[in-house]
Amino acid sequence: MAGSAQPAAIGETVLKVADLCVTFRTPAGPIEVPRGVSFTVRRGETLALVGESGSGKSVTSLAVMRLTPKPPRCHVRGQVLLRDDAGGTRDLLSLSDEQMRRVRGNDISMIFQEPMTSLNPVHTVGAQIAEAIHFHRNVGPRAARERALALLELVGISEPRKRLDSYPHHLSGGMRQRVMIAMALACDPKVLIADEPTTALDVTVQAQILALLKELQQRTGMGIIFITHNLGVVAEIADRVMVMYAGRIVEQADVGPLFARPMMPYTAGLLRSVPRVDLAGAGRPVLETIGGNVPDPLRMPPGCAFHPRCRHHRPGRCDTAVPALEDAGGDHLLRCARWREIAEAAS
Amino acid sequence: MPVDRIDELGGRPEPEQTLHVNRNRALRRFLRHRLAILGTVTIAVLVIACAIGPYITPFDHLFIDIRSRFQPPVSGAHVFGTDEMGRDLLSRLMMAGRVSLTIGFAAMMLSTIFGTLVGAVAGYYGRKTGAVLMRFVDAVLCFPNIFLLLTLAAFIQPSLMTITIIIAATSWMEVARVVEGQLRSLRERDFAVAAEMIGAPNSHIMFKELLPNAVAPIVVAATLTVARAILMESYISFLGYGIQPPEPSWGNMLNNAQQYLNSAPWLAIFPGLMITLAVTSFNFLGDGLRDALDPRLEV
Fold first, then answer.
1. Is this prediction's ipTM beyond 0.90?
2. What is the pTM of this model?
């Protein structure tokens, strides 16, 4: 697959998230994940959100969709600015529940990891896609069905007319994920959040789905937020990458520079821990790991959250204050107190 | 076989624990359940007999014939014998069956609808709304049913309608609990979140996405409710608060028969038999449906 060899025309900003904080109230104390996350998604751009489990990538996407638990269990602060058709922006966090319902599936959609369970087993595929249209468009049942048919064709399902009346259990995992994508795209959203959409699929189907998403993006110009922990997938689909660790963005850059020269030790560690078939048996261990575990969100280490696992950490520098997100040039943001020294030592 | 090839062919169906997928298998399991079949057949016979029987028999269920009092069964023109006023017992049993079955079905419908609504709202919204509703259900469950029924029946003019409502009012809680549990777990399923994600309104998710997935336990609970409603109607009619004579009901016929237990035992045996037959049949049917629709018995 060619990947992003020829990137789609990237246009104006459609989604801007500023200083997003989500606080969960737990019996053991408040947990804040994510803690002040800011990013933008532009038209036709794919932003990959990478991080270990518990780094806050899924919560970030749920907060954008306003689907986190309701207060008092969970509080969301910050801004989620979505560009509307008139060219203005509105803050999704300040909308009423009903207004937000109109945004979901219409302006922003989401697809999930588990295509096997994301479709309702008691309704036909066609009915489920038609519903997605009904919620936002004032169309008759016949028009909705026609649109559902067109969508099934769009997502590359063979014999779409026959498939309209299939039940989810008639379909394989890859087909179901295609149906999910059709549902998500039913109303031409400006932003699609894909939460590990290929993790549960076979590798060959994975590649097909990635290619499909890329193709659909080129046709519709939607921005995609792609959540994954598979760096191979990131290299294939993303334009820009945002690495999260313990609720904060630790590095954000265009995909090329980030893979060529990761500057934050955590990102570098992540890239080293990707299995590399070509190096196997060449005197190097097949797989490197990052020692230690993700910190307990209730007991965050002081200073840089990564310092207990970082091979470059210096007492007194890394464990005192949280490093700021700095621009290393060329829109390459990173959060590390010692990045200059590390970069010098490397070169 | 490459995976995308399977994709092209339409994929292999995965086993899933849903009503729809298992429809055929559920039917087969149900047909293997002998008692359930027996119950279904008995119910069908009872319903047909009560529905058309009164038009066929030559005797009116209210016609008094003093000359032929206490005729034992199979002795003359009256197959099931006659009662203390010479009324044909078979006609009375069939008319009473209409009352009992009507109350059974109507109370089941009412309590199932109400219980499903309460349970669905409680299970879907959860938290405070759910807690309040379910504590209310628990509170109603704590009432001793029969005494509540009798107290209510003493205040309200008994008629088919009021008795149905009273019985429904004391039997909707089980359905509510079943539905609440179902919806609370279904709500967390991916397809519920997915529906929310495409902007489905709450009412849509609740009634169109989640409830159809909970049909099986609702059907089972409803069937068992019919049996209980028939039994309850008999209780209150037996105690004299239900259907008023001369209109027959299995319960008040039994009450009436008490005095003649020695001289004319068939007056008690037949209505008692009808109640037992109807109630056990519905219970067998309910058990059969439960076994047939329970996905845990898949293995």
1. no
2. 0.77
